[in-house]
Specification:
Blueprint (H helix, E strand, L loop, with lengths): L7 E5 L13 E4 L18 E5 L2 E5 L2 E2 L12 E2 L3 E4 L18 E2 L2 E5 L2 E5 L2 E2 L2 E2 L3 E6 L5 E6 L6 E2 L2 E5 L2 E5 L2 E2 L8 E5 L11 E2 L12 E7 L2 E12 L5 E11 L4 E5 L19 E5 L3 E5 L4 H4 L3 H12 L3 H17 L6 E6 L3 E7 L11 E3 L2 E5 L27 E7 L17 H8 L2 E7 L4 H10 L32 H7 L3 E7 L23 E5 L13 E2 L2 E2 L8 H15 L6 E6 L11 H4 L10 H14 L25 H32 L5 E7 L37 E2 L12 E2 L3 H8 L12 H4 E7 L9 E3 L3 E2 L3 H8 L13 H4 L8 E6 L2 E6 L2 E5 L6 E4 L15 H17 L5 H5 L5 E3 L2 E3 L10 H18 L11
Parallel strand pairs: 31-37, 31-38, 32-42, 32-43, 33-34, 33-37, 39-40
Antiparallel strand pairs: 1-2, 1-30, 3-4, 4-7, 5-6, 8-11, 9-10, 10-13, 11-12, 13-14, 15-18, 16-17, 17-19, 19-20, 21-22, 22-23, 23-24, 25-26, 26-27, 27-28, 29-30, 32-41, 34-35, 35-36, 38-41, 44-45, 45-46, 46-47, 48-49
Helix pairs in contact: 2-3, 7-10, 9-11
Length: about 950
Amino acid sequence: MSRSGNAFCVLMGCFVGGLAQGAPAWEWLPDLPAVAGQRTQPGLAGPVAGVLDGTLIVAGGANFPNRPPWEGGAKAWHDAIFILEPKANEWRQSPDWKLPTRLAYGGTVETARGLLLVGGAVEGRATDAVWLMSRKGDGGFAFESLPSLPTPVANAGVVRSGKQVFVVCGDTATAPGSQAVYALDLKQWGAKGWEWTSRVPLPGKRRNKAAVVAQERYGRSGVYVFGGSHVADDGAITILSDAWFYDVTANRWRALPAMELAGRAPGESNALGAASAMAYGEEGLLVFSGAGSDFLLGRLEVLNAARQAAKRGDGLRGNKLLAQQMALMSRQPEFRSDIYLYQPEAGWKCVGQWPGPGAVTTRAVAWRGGVVIPSGETRPGVRTPKVRFAPSLDRVVAPRPNIVLIMLDDMGYSDLGCFGGEIETPNIDRLAKGGLRFTQFYNCGRCCPTRASLLTGLGAHRAGLGHMATADYGLPGYRGEIAPHAVTVAEALRASGYATWMAGKWHVSREFMPGQSKHNWPRQRGFDKFYGTLIAAGSQWNPITLTEGNAPAEPKGDYYYTEALANRAVGWMRAHPKGSPFFLYLSLTAPHWPLHAREKIIAKYRQRYLAGWDALRAARLKKMKTLGLLCDGVDLSKRDPHVPDWESAAHREWQASRMAAYAAMIDHADTAVGRVVDALRKRGELDNTLILVFSDNGGASLEHPNGMIGSTGKPWALMRYVEVATRAGRPVLSGDIVGLSPGAEDTYAGYGYGWANLSNTPFRLFKKNMHEGGIASPLIVHWPAGVKAAGKLRRQLAHVMDIMPTCLEVAGRATSGLDGVSLRPTFANQPALRQTLFFEHAGNRAARQGDWKLVAEFGQPWELYHLANDPTEMHDLAAREPKRLAKLRALYQDWAAAHQVEPWAKVQERIRGASRGGVVLPSQANPLARRPDEVARAVNAMNTERKKRGLPTLKLNENK
């Protein structure tokens, strides 16, 4: 038909999330390298384009290596693969990178497991093949053959809506153009009987090369089809302008308004041929035209006449007419390259042109926050100039919001002032007053699983971190790090044009020592900038594994970790161009032990906690009811069995000092939040920044009496994350030592059962448990531009894995393929998109469906609670509701089997190190474990200092 182009243009800022202020700029990407055996650089018609883990993939395609078809040339088909990394400026190719076959005009869909390649043309014939394309460890590509399409298809629209993949129209083996619609349910991925099913065919004429796009809005999904071409039985071509919507739930088609003079002069055709389309945030759909009116007017008749002559056997006349057609095309303007915005409520609007010529065999691809238009067939003899082009596009949506995630570490449900606590958190409270508070937001019960789920939008086990980031236990759900197939929120947002920054605790990688692999460090998992720590815990004054980028960093001057994290975050914002969206993950270690804070902040709280945990738990419960967080009839859970009543507690002044230091850490964290908010306000971007504040799990009850690890008989100094000396060389007196108030640089302590019980008011149990005290977290959402309600409560069920899809949706990206669901509908107080949740950690497990919750500790029987009436889990209904218990238990077992959850006893067999009293002691091979001689020296140094202060000493014979 025509010569094919080899250039790729990108519209930055146009794809989903809105057109930037002013006119977005087109830029030309580098030309593709030459394909072996071709005289000139390739101009690929119908390349297979897609995005895999943030990398732009262009593969296969067809061209005319010697002469164009009107001169007797034939198409050459290719299987070569080219890739363009997000920050690269050149294509990469390897002789080993090959498609399974020579392919063009195929469709692609990105999934969590890789890129689906669906249908296409193999050496000129339609194919029914479906492959899964994934990256191998050596950087190459692997292909897995998947269930075939019901019929061979080429030039089809392939899209994903929710957890289904749809193939719409296209050429088939029997007709140039089709009305068929096929669907594949990704929820059955890998299950027996996974197959393509036929859906209601598209009404009207059969069509080819239509613009097909899926869009999801607040849980309603559907597939749109625009234009395309129809080839009649006699060979006549008609370019179509009609549009249709396929309702996935109802399994039916609905006609949409056809294009009506969208920016054209009266009398011009508005037909779309070989168009491409993509979702445009929540505002509508962008449609990129290919062969349209300029191709039709005065020339389509010639082409049809040539086809008719060829069909009658008059080859000479047919060839002359075809040559006449090509000559006309070579002298006339290119195919149309218009951009249209289709809004269901407002119809069509022409918003400009992409830098021509319009390509008739291409599909638009979302990449780097923009739209990639691979050049396909253009008019003969025209080489697309490599220029920057700024189309005149109307600003039709607001800029995409910045996104700031702020996670606190081991903070209980009611510690914040706006959730009932007595700790002073004015900055966070102001966010709550101007935004929303979620009362039923859940985490995964412990640091690593929660962070993995947050970063990937998957359940912790499916993300590879069902337990801890300590070792690879050889089980899919327990690999000790984020799984390679899991795309992080930073990777997804960076591919959409966001700057991505992380400050704080990572804790989702097995490797953290110099010289070890960095493949799963923040910079390698999507963050442009990183400043923080890689492991679970460390000093606020001298944090271990402190890292900037990929290199070790050292604390300098008057250093305090929480303050340093805020400094980095604010500095990044100040240096960032205004109007360019960014994603900040501020992962604070406060108030995780060790309890470290500046003395002037601790002093604010020294007298406050002499009232004791009993009185303060009652005061918090009362305040929570006043704030509307709890109903009047809710009972306070019983004091934990490990905790004496306050009046009977020993060393009450020392006990109060522990909680004072803990409260001071949250006070510091609130100041850090205030600095970030103030920086946003000064930039004029606070209103259009989505801020979420939450905790990774409930309060931690672990005790380290007199410096020992629980009841293990091992000193805490065994662990390298416990400092043995300050930066100035003074011994660090690690442990919960009666008479030694925590907070200073030479202390290293926690706050224990009594105060963790207060933190988790009104709930039972602690971090690691799947009762509410372990998994309930406060959540605050602040986004004035996107959340019109202020100071309101949201009681919808939500989970930390919902944060990634929420971020993607507000950034304009698709959210399918994740376990989490977007919380954005709940911002407007719409129902949650899910009513069932499941939990498991270290054998502790739970299932929640609606208001009913099934929960058990490891080795203990199931308990059943009706949380609407009993949110503190005080009244076990298991004996009264055996049928409901059995139903929830069956649901839990089905979830566990589908989500890589293993029996805890099986996992325990693979844990390295001795388990004593519920605490796992590391083996000597663990890089975090000190050698026995190092431990002995540390204990001796501490004992010398302890004697000076009149504190109890450690006995070396306890280090057995």
